[in-house]
Design brief:
The protein has about 150 residues and is mainly beta. It has one domain (about 25-150): Thiol:disulfide interchange protein DsbD, N-terminal domain (Immunoglobulin-like, Sandwich). Helices cover about 15% and strands about 55% of the residues. The chain has 1 helix and 10 strands. It has one helix at about 1-20; strands at about 25-35, 40-45, 50-55, 65-70, 75-85, 90-95, 100-105, 105-115, 120-130, 140-150. The strands form 2 sheets. Strands 3, 4, 6, 7, 9 and 10 form a 6-stranded antiparallel β-sheet that branches. It is elongated, with a radius of gyration of 19 Å. It starts with a helix and ends with a strand. The model has no long low-confidence stretch (mean pLDDT about 85).
């Protein structure tokens, strides 16, 4: 009995370790472009098969939306806006009982901002969740991407 219990625990731990190492969303900066005093960053997400991420504009009472922002503790940014380039899909979420926006397979965003001062680097933060379309399991997403502007 003890041996069987140990084997089950060992199997669960190995499965958890392997599953936790899987990268569900691969974020990439595809282009950085300076336009006058402003900057545009194209951001893409490759989403693992059978998974989806929530969009940025979900109804109240629904899941937490995808957040994309710049770490700006020193107040160096005058203007900041994120645009969804890819078309999201609308899906009824039975857990929250609301329609939600989701992205499947890939998502593309344009980040536009204007720095107050001449900055060389900044940190782009991505915060959200990925959910399985097979079993509904969700995992938190958090990514920090350093952007070199010069």
């Amino acid at each position: 009995m003890n041996r069987k219990f140990v084997l089950i625990i060992l199997f669960l731990l190995i499965s958890f370790f392997v599953f936790s190492q899987e990268k569900l969303v691969d974020w990439k900066i595809t282009k950085i472009k300076n336009i006058g005093d402003s900057c545009e960053i194209n951001l893409s997400a490759a989403i693992a098969k059978d998974w989806y991420i929530f969009g940025m504009n979900n109804e109240d009472g629904g899941p937490l939306p995808l957040l994309i922002y710049i770490e700006d503790e020193e107040n160096k940014i005058k203007f900041f806006k994120v645009y969804e380039i890819s078309k999201s899909y609308v899906k009824y979420d039975e857990i929250f009982n609301v329609n939600v926006e989701i992205f499947l397979e890939k998502a593309e965003f344009k980040v536009v901002f204007q720095p107050k001062n001449n900055i060389e680097t900044l940190m782009l933060i991505i915060d959200g969740q990925a959910c399985s379309s097979k079993d509904g399991a969700c995992r938190a997403l958090y990514e920090e991407i350093e952007i070199k502007l010069k």
